[in-house]
Amino acid sequence: MVAAAAAVMALALAACGGGGDEPETEGGATGGSDEVEVFTWWAAGSEKAGLDALVAVFDEQHPDVTFINGAVAGGAGSQAKDLLQTRLQAQDPPDTFQAHAGAELQDYIDAAQIEPVTDLYDEFGLTDAFPADLMDRLTAEDGEIYSIPSNIHRANVVWTNRQVLTDAGLDPDATYDDLSSWMDDMETLKKAGVTPLAVAQAWTQVHLLETVLLADLGAEGYSGLWDGSTDWEGPEVKAALEDFQTLMGYTNTDRDGLDWPESQQLVIDGKAAFTVMGDWAEASYEEQKQELGTDYSAYAVPGTDGVFDFLADSFTLPVGAPHPDGANAWLETVGSAEGQEAFNKAKGSIPARTDVDMSTFGEYQQAAAEAFKSDTIVSSLAHGAAVPVATLTAITDATSKFTSGASDLATFQSELAAANAG
């Protein structure tokens, strides 16, 4: 996932203006003292739509602060994270940056690159607005909170093309009790000449892997992978990896050259039957006028019903932020009811706040909000909630080797165990 040094430097020059000029705002003006550079990977599609909606609220709430868009596209955030680390190490931080809430933040905390924002929770009235379970997941080992979440996403979601299933003689309303019955229908699809399961580059394969681990190990066993109570080298994990291997055999052969919107589009266009992706995918269906229950279905990955595989985008306060007042203004909007409503309607996620009226949201988002209240919550591997960045990088490398045929299952399991031991 680490980009080549030349690519990182090229991105750094582009983001920093190359010749030392003031960065440009979205409107093209140069920034002044009352400004905030917001660093994200929300550069296209529903992610950019969500950011634009949030910026509109920010402009209303803080008209005297100029918003500077520091978005970097590519690799589900991997290129942005590479460039961000380059800037942080050079002591050239943005005013605030996007990061996944949870274990992903620990690397920044350990490197003294971000400051606690615990006091802002009281100042902005967030402690009572966010559910207690979320507050626990936001609180670091030192008892401080280091980010403000803009949303809640669910990772363990299957998206289907109902017509493809019908044409293959399968029940488009089937939701499956376990992976085995799901894979039986994939075999039927494969024999019919249909790609059963669409995936994309390595991070989407890790995303699929985490849902397989969750399905086969259960919520407690899955969570035990991250706290040491589940043995990575045990037979239960081996069986889950065998299911992952079987599922990868039903995927599209061009997967490594695609990113998630393209694999999602394979399903929308009827070129594949299923995909596993977080509920940010919902916006793709809305944009293309697809109707839930008519054109597509969305449900928990087989074997994970009643479990909510959690992640949250959030924003931080970097140490040495050049415009801390601007950063605080942005963080206030991110945590506000108005900001969360506008952002999540556009992005397909649900608000982190419990006091946002969900009646004006789409059918899927309303169902997701209810599930978050009632389901067992676990932390996403692929999206920074369960493990630090270094561990996720090692898991991704091991997964990429395995799915490309460069290692066997025994080696894959050993490498996963080593990644989590370090």
TrEMBL record:
Keywords: Signal, Transport. It comes from the Bacteria. The keyword Aminoacyl-tRNA synthetase does not apply. It is found in: Cell envelope. One of its GO terms (cellular component) is cell envelope. Part of a binding-protein-dependent transport system for a sugar. Belongs to the bacterial solute-binding protein 1 family. This is Probable sugar-binding periplasmic protein. It comes from Krasilnikoviella flava.
